[in-house]
Design brief:
- The chain is α+β, with helices and mostly antiparallel strands and 254 residues long.
- The chain is built from ten helices and nine strands.
Length: 254
């Protein structure tokens, strides 16, 4: 779909997102990397990966694909793209891809029993064309200072949370590690990430919990412990409040 609005708060989902930037420039954050995306580029966001995007006026199209619909080699390809982070489309394929992507947007706006099949067909064709191209990585060095170099303290905090989310993390602990007051650290984090430190920590833990619920047979107690929640009861309570489903029901629907 096309838009001129930001998705500036970190979020995640349980499917692969192929994010194509057709016009404009965007700052794109995924996991712990930031890129300045030019027009004619794309990112692959794997399931349960926290990400956000912001910037000025732009046009983008998302292609969302469930892992259950993909072949092993397609999953391998998407995971390799996700590791790179951001890629520039081959100019030889770009017109055809853009045409397909915009057709997909038109299909989404229609109703009918064949819509889902047609969307899936377009998504698979887009994926096939991506695999045929020579894709050029976009370096993290292209990241805008506003999201990276301008505030290394924020990135130190992001990296620490990403690595230690299983542990007890407090504002006192983080402020001591950054040699800043809690007020100063929270203000700087909010300015860059558009959410509070505790909200970011919660979203990391929630994304990891969804991933474990979808891919393992671990008990609620094990998942709560692995994701840094204080107890299985508390985990179930906050999960249902945020997702709208109990962890057990969420697991059954995956």
């Amino acid at each position: 779909m096309t838009t001129k609005f930001d998705m500036s708060e970190p979020h995640s989902h349980d499917y692969y997102e192929l994010y194509f930037l057709l016009e404009g420039k965007r700052e794109f954050f995924a996991r712990d990397k930031t890129f300045l995306l030019p027009s004619g580029s794309f990112c692959v966001v794997p399931p349960f990966c926290l990400h956000k995007t912001e910037g000025g006026a732009y046009e983008r199209v998302n292609v969302n694909i469930s892992e259950t619909l993909l072949k092993k080699e397609e999953i391998r390809f998407l995971n390799e793209c996700a590791k790179v982070g951001a890629l520039r489309l081959d100019e030889a394929y770009r017109p055809l891809l853009v045409s397909l992507l915009r057709e997909g947007v038109t299909v989404r706006a229609t109703k009918g029993s064949l819509r889902r099949d047609y969307e899936a067909s377009i998504a698979r064709t887009v994926l096939y064309l991506l695999q045929k191209q020579v894709l050029t990585p976009i370096s993290t060095a292209a990241a805008l200072p506003a999201l990276a170099a301008a505030d290394p303290v924020v990135w130190k905090t992001v990296f620490y949370i990403n690595e230690h989310y299983r542990e007890t993390i407090t504002l006192d602990l983080l402020s001591a590690k950054c040699f800043l007051s809690k007020v100063a650290l929270c203000a700087r984090f909010k300015k860059v990430m558009h959410c509070s430190i505790m909200q970011y920590l919660f979203q990391i833990r929630l994304s990891k919990a969804k991933e474990l619920l979808s891919s393992t047979e671990k008990s609620m107690e094990e998942i709560a412990c692995d994701c840094g929640f204080s107890s299985a009861n508390y985990f179930s309570l906050v999960f249902k409040k945020e997702v709208g489903l109990s962890p057990l029901y969420y697991k059954k629907t995956r």
